[in-house]
Amino acid sequence: MAILIALEMVLSRFSxxxxxxxxxxxxxxxxxxxxxxxxxKAAIAMAIADIMKMVILPSSGGFFWGFxxxxxxxxxxxxxxxxxxxxxxxxxxxxxxxxxxIVNTLMNTLWIHMISNVPYLVLLMPRLLKEAISxxxxxxxxxxxxxxxxxxxxxxxx
Length: 158
Fold this sequence. Notes:
InterPro entries: ECF_S_folate_fam (IPR030949), ECF_trnsprt_substrate-spec (IPR024529). The chain crosses the membrane at residues 20-38, 62-83, 90-112, 132-149. Pfam families: ECF_trnsprt. This is Integral membrane protein. One of its GO terms (molecular function) is transmembrane transporter activity. The chain is built from 5 helices and 2 strands; from the N terminus they run αββαααα. By secondary structure, the protein is mostly helical. It has one domain (2-16, 24-150): Arp2/3 complex 21 kDa subunit ARPC3, CATH 1.10.1760. It has a two-stranded antiparallel sheet with strand order 1-2. A hairpin with a 4-residue loop joins β1 (15-17) and β2 (22-24). The longest helix is centred in the first third of the chain and has 31 residues, at 26-56.
């Protein structure tokens, strides 16, 4: 689990694209943690990763508890949807929809609103297109990674 937490921390700091549309890959590590360890351990792992990121790899924004709540909810969603479940496109799509809508669009926009005092709807509108695009690539990449893992000798960690 520690390796996957470290992977999530590193991947969260790298993204490609412009300020308007940045493509990140930390969702792969989060999905793997949920797939291997289930909702409870994944929620704890995501909280640990979020707090450790602020200590080891601080960002200019500093620590805000709301993003830790988002991380915990992410671990729960990935764990409930992927742990001990057959990897299918539909399951990964539903998982990604839940993540994009609940965590990325609704919760994280609320946290940004609370930090910046910019009206919620003003923040939400540009994020909708970004999250719609991320839904497509996250579903595809996560499905390919999980399908490969499920068909390999690494399908379970003992």
